Amino acid sequence: MTATGKHPADYAFASPEVSACPYPFYAAARDECPVYELPSGIGYLLSRHGDVSDAVTDTEHFSSHRPVFGAGDPEFEEIHAQGYPQVPSLVTNDPPEHTRFKKLVNKGFTPRSITALEPSMHQLVDDLIDGFAGEGTVELMSRFAMPYPTTVIGTALGVPPAEHARFQQWADDIADSVSTYIPRERALECKRGIVEMQHYFADLIEQRRAEPREDLVSDLVTARVGGERPLDVPEILDVIRTFVAGGVESTGSLIGSAMLLLLTHPDQLDQVLADHRLIPRMLEEALRMESPVQFNPRMIEKDGVAVRDVPLPAGSRVLLGWGPANRDPDVFGPDADRFDIHRGDVGRHLAFGHGPHFCIGAALARSEARIAFEHLLTRLRDIRLAAPAEEIRYQGAFVRRLERLPLRFIPA
After folding, report:
1. Hey, what domains does the chain have and what are their CATH numbers?
2. How many CA atoms lie within 13 Å of 230's alpha carbon, on the beta-carbon side?
3. How far apart are the C-alpha atoms of 37 and 30, rounded to whole Å?
């Protein structure tokens, strides 16, 4: 048994209580059942760093292919028929097809292209802070952490500012659609939102085909690499779906979690305030401690595979546990549950994935978050929580994000 005497079956996976703080469950799974069969046919959870790292590189057995959301259900199929075919591109594909997509998409995420975005990110952060700096209080998630990456990815895609507000809802719809834990009505709502997004971007794709601009949609329309065929409309739509979900949710979650971790560890906040060069290291530790995406699903193909002598039959669903792997004491030491911005092995975290599916937008997310904290910690002084820490809660089992983060501060 674990130090707490618990078995993973003692926890209700994906319940509000476990979603709010999944780490005791993760510890029980790592200790007692590193390959744990989750209840209700959800699949298997891999919770140890080594197993997760090995699985993500074994694309022959652990495939990113997965059924289309709602496939086989007449009500979902009716909504799906109103949109475009959902084809595998980046997240739901395996090499060599995945490699083709990555080659065609990489143009928009080169170091040069990200550096070119940085002046606008600095300006956007200042504009957002201007909106609340004089008030002395702010709910950071709704007024900064989520609008900021929403605007960055919307601008990068070439979407007019007036349309950016729709991105947050679409990002939530995509994230929830991957989860198996949402009520049916919410699942149907997600399906409708994804079809709405498809139609919006299909129109934008045709506009850029006729008149390309300096944006990611134009890059996708005009992308050519060697003898590779260009991306068609359903393929471009699936790539955009990945950009919207990853570009909004991951960065917004990281900003909120990093701020909460700093404010609940004032000694480390003081160090970062004294030396902003520690911000990138602090962000990596925040990614490890509170991975924005907790799991990544895979489907077992071929004739099945065994992990730690546990057979995973063909057709099984497996959740690769970024969240539990990132607190594995075998990799990060006996203090793996402690926030430490000076942690020497933090670079081994899996918050952005690993292997062929390492997040294509990781460098952009890191740049966005670094710029956010450079400005927040310069322009706001004496930042404190405006509610007891125990009342600040996370939402979501798959994508982990703070519901609210109320702060008070003194304007610099």
Report:
1. 8-411 (1.10.630.10)
2. 10
3. 13
